[in-house]
Design goal:
This protein has 345 residues and is α+β, with helices and mostly antiparallel strands. It has one domain. 17% of the residues lie in helices and 28% in strands. The strands form three sheets. Strands 1, 4, 5, 6, 7, 8, 9, 10, 11, 12, 13 and 16 form a twelve-stranded mixed beta sheet that branches. It has a two-stranded antiparallel ribbon with strand order 2-3. The longest helix is centred in the N-terminal third of the chain and has 18 residues. It is globular and about 55 Å long. 32% of the residues are buried. The N terminus is likely disordered.
Length: 345
C-alpha cells in the first residue's frame, strides 16, 4: 500500500492495493466471506417455501436472482438458490475493511473508535482529503482485460461519527459509512467491452457503542444503489434492527421487462414499470411484490390550500401512497411464504 500521509482530523490517505483476483468466494481460511456480502441474506432468503414452493413462484424468483447477478457479478450455485462467487466493488471493499491489514483503513476505524470514546464528532473522508483508493486485479491485468474489469477506483470512502446531542436525537451515537465507486471513462470503441456495472453508492449506519476498530461491524441499516450500462438500476435497503427486519429490493428498469407478473394473473398496462419493489420480511418469512408506473414519489399535501402560498413550488408535499416505494402491505400484487434466514428475524 502507498500512503501520502494523514491529517489528525481526517486520517484518510491514498490506498493502492493489488489483488490476485477481485473474485470473492468462501475458502477454508475465510468460510464466511459470502455471508457478509450485501445480498448474502436476501438472495437465498426469497426462496419460496411450503405450499408456495411452486413453479410459478420459482420462475419469478429466478428472474429476480438473474437480474441481481448482472449487478453484483454473482456465479449462482448449481441449484440457483445461492451463489458461490461474487465480483463487485462494494463487496470487495467491505471485505478488505473487515479483514484489516490495510493500514489507512485500520487507522480510519481506530480514529472513529477513539472519537467515540472521547465523545467527540469525527470524520474520515477520502474526498475531502484528496485521497485516492485504487484496487488492481493482477489476473485481469495479466489477461489485458478491459480497464474497468482490472482497475477499480473509489471516489469516496467516508466514516462519520455523531455523538449524543442535547436533544437526544435517535440519530445520535451513530457511525455512518459511505462508499462510492464509479467506473472510469473509456473511449467509444472500448465502451462495449466494459463490465455491466457503472456505479454503486452504498451507505451503512452502525451503533457507535458497539462499533469496533477490527473485524466485521454489523450495521443497523444499509443501502446500496447499483447502476448498470444496459439494465437500469437496483437498490437494496436493509433493516437489521427492530421487531420486523426487512430487505427491500427496488428494480429500476423502465426499458425492459425484468419480472413477468402475468404468470401470477397480474396484467400491467406497461410490463416494464419504473418502480418494482420486492420486499422480504424476515419476521413474517414472506416476500411481497409491489409495482407502480409514472407515479411521483411525492405529491402536494391534500390538506394544504395552494392559495395560501406564493407559488406552486411552495406548497407542502407528502409521500405519494400510489408510488410503489410507499405502498401499504395490502397493495402487494404478489406474495409467497419464503425461506428467509435463521440469522434475521
Amino acid at each position: 500500500m502507498e500512503s501520502s500521509g494523514s491529517s489528525t482530523l481526517n486520517p484518510a490517505t491514498d490506498v493502492n492495493l493489488r489483488f490476485s483476483t477481485f473474485n470473492l468466494a468462501n475458502t477454508d481460511q475465510a468460510p464466511d466471506t459470502l455471508s457478509h456480502t450485501r445480498f448474502g441474506d436476501y438472495y437465498p432468503g426469497i426462496e419460496p417455501s411450503g405450499v408456495d414452493n411452486n413453479p410459478t413462484n420459482q420462475q419469478t424468483v429466478e428472474e429476480v436472482r438473474r437480474h441481481i447477478d448482472r449487478f453484483i457479478g454473482a456465479t449462482p450455485a448449481e441449484d440457483g438458490k445461492s451463489y458461490t462467487k461474487v465480483r463487485n466493488p462494494l463487496d470487495l471493499i467491505n471485505q478488505v475493511i473487515s479483514v484489516g491489514q490495510v493500514a489507512n483503513f485500520d487507522e480510519g476505524r481506530n480514529y472513529i473508535r477513539n472519537r467515540i470514546a472521547e465523545g467527540q464528532a469525527g470524520n474520515y473522508n477520502t474526498r475531502s482529503a484528496d485521497a485516492m483508493i485504487r484496487f488492481v486485479d493482477q489476473e485481469a491485468e495479466n489477461n489485458q482485460a478491459p480497464l474497468n474489469n482490472r482497475e477499480w477506483y473509489y471516489q469516496t470512502l467516508d466514516w462519520r461519527y455523531l455523538p449524543k446531542g442535547p436533544d437526544n436525537n435517535n440519530l445520535d451515537e451513530k457511525v455512518y459509512r459511505t462508499a462510492q465507486y464509479v467506473a472510469r471513462s473509456v473511449s467509444e470503441d472500448q465502451q462495449a467491452k466494459q463490465p455491466e456495472l457503472v456505479s454503486v453508492l452504498a451507505g451503512s449506519r452502525f451503533n457507535a457503542l458497539s462499533f469496533a476498530s477490527i473485524g466485521y461491524n454489523q450495521p443497523e441499516l444499509a443501502t446500496a444503489d447499483f447502476v448498470s450500462r444496459n439494465y437500469g438500476g437496483i437498490e437494496l435497503r436493509q433493516e437489521f434492527v427492530g421487531e420486523a427486519q426487512k430487505d427491500t429490493l427496488f428494480i429500476k428498469n423502465s426499458e425492459q421487462q425484468v419480472v413477468d407478473l402475468s404468470r401470477h394473473g397480474v396484467i400491467l398496462e406497461d410490463t416494464s414499470p419504473d418502480c418494482l419493489r420486492v420486499e422480504l420480511n424476515y419476521a413474517m418469512n414472506e416476500v411481497r411484490i409491489y409495482t407502480s408506473n409514472e407515479e411521483p414519489s411525492r405529491v402536494p399535501d391534500p390538506n394544504a390550500n395552494p392559495a395560501d402560498y406564493d407559488s406552486p413550488e411552495d406548497v407542502p408535499t407528502v409521500a405519494n401512497p400510489a408510488n410503489c416505494v410507499n405502498q401499504a402491505d395490502d397493495n402487494a400484487v404478489v406474495w409467497w411464504s419464503a425461506s428467509a434466514s435463521a440469522d434475521r428475524k
